[in-house]
Amino acid sequence: MKLYNSLTKKVEDFKTNEPGKVSMYTCGPTVYHFAHIGNLRSYICEDVLEKLLRFGGYDVKRVMNITDVGHLSSDADTGEDKMLKGARREHKTVMEIAKFYTDAFFSDCNKLNIKMPDVVEPATNCIPEFINMIEGLLEKGYAYKAGDNIYFDTSRLVNYYVFGNQNEDELMVGARDDVTEDTNKRNKNDFVLWFTRSKFEDQALKWDSPWGVGYPGWHIECSCISMKHLGEKLDLHCGGVDNMFPHHTNEIAQSESFIGHKWCNYWFHVHHLNDETGKMSKSKGEFLTVSLLEKKGYDPLAYRLFVLQSHYRKPLTFSFAILDQADATYKKLKSRIAPVEEEGAVDEGAVKEWHDKFLEAVGDDCNTAMGLTLLYDVLKSELNGATKRKVIEDYDYVLSLDLLKTEEEAGVDEELKKYVEAKIAERAEAKKAKDFEKADAIRDELAGKGIVIKDTREGAVWSRA
Ligand SMILES: [Zn+2]
Known about the structure:
single chain; binds zinc ion; 15 helices; five-stranded parallel β-sheet; Rossmann fold
């Protein structure tokens, strides 16, 4: 497989630390609002990448954080606390907001056939790990205390701008977004590891630390959560291109200072989704969510197809007119596949051959558009019906467009969802009543139907196995 690496700015052969195994980390959502479809573009592309690696025979372990504390409205530690902002807006507690939007995020992912990562970890689960890393950084002289906060000292690093392509303007993120300048910082790009003097009087979530009661900065969580589950050598780190600076730059700075060697080998960044007026954001124009697409009558998988039609390293422009085209293409594609009958014997040799073609084409830096082209080639080919269906099934593991699902089966989905959610509620009740036998029985019953439940701090979430 070949992959573009933001660190070297080159397409490289993908080599893992351990043969056959991939450790993969994804920056998860800050759960203070719905994800807009631009955020979800990244998660779709990362989902394809994970599945492609598995398709190519790798054993992948993928970890994702949920940011439920510490992310301020500017990525450079200034402005308001995003979680508090959400809580205030909706007159709920921060934990209620976190639970609601975590569930909403995974429900959107489920609709877009985005697989659940193997480990999902909320930041608030890992406070001891954050404190441990910050203590280490202080001991090694990479961090300092000022104004009762702990900061990372970027001047200690020879090579701080690891992605190397930012100019001074782009490095001014904080200054650009906010008028407030943090005068405790010794260097412009120093960042907060731990806030002890909360700027917010009603800060809901705070913890004891060696430096006083407070809460962690945003960047520290990804380094710690990644190391907690994937160790000190990471193969692959993913995120949106807007995470490159300061977030990923700071993750690298603190991780490598802490462990004393290289941390992550490959960085995968998905580019922006723009609307016709420019970069999509939550604050301007119509707030484009999966639910809105559904309300307007679109199948969320038509949006997935729209994303797969273009390359993840190119900015993509969204409009409803373009989505209409993708929707029509999706319907046409499914109507071409539906009549392919299960006839003849499956030609396993041909299945393998087409599998390898897909791996070669899409494995060249996640070229999903080529995968779609190959799908049409399969349909046009001389293969018998049974073999075609087998190849389509194989491709659909990566594309995840429900290509073989009939409309009736798609209709069952809503039923299935209701059923699973009722079972999850029943299980939560059983657990509350300490009837663990019953709770386990419900989990096993769902597993028998191919539904996997994962317990998170915010409650159980589910996905298809
Ligand atoms: Zn992150």
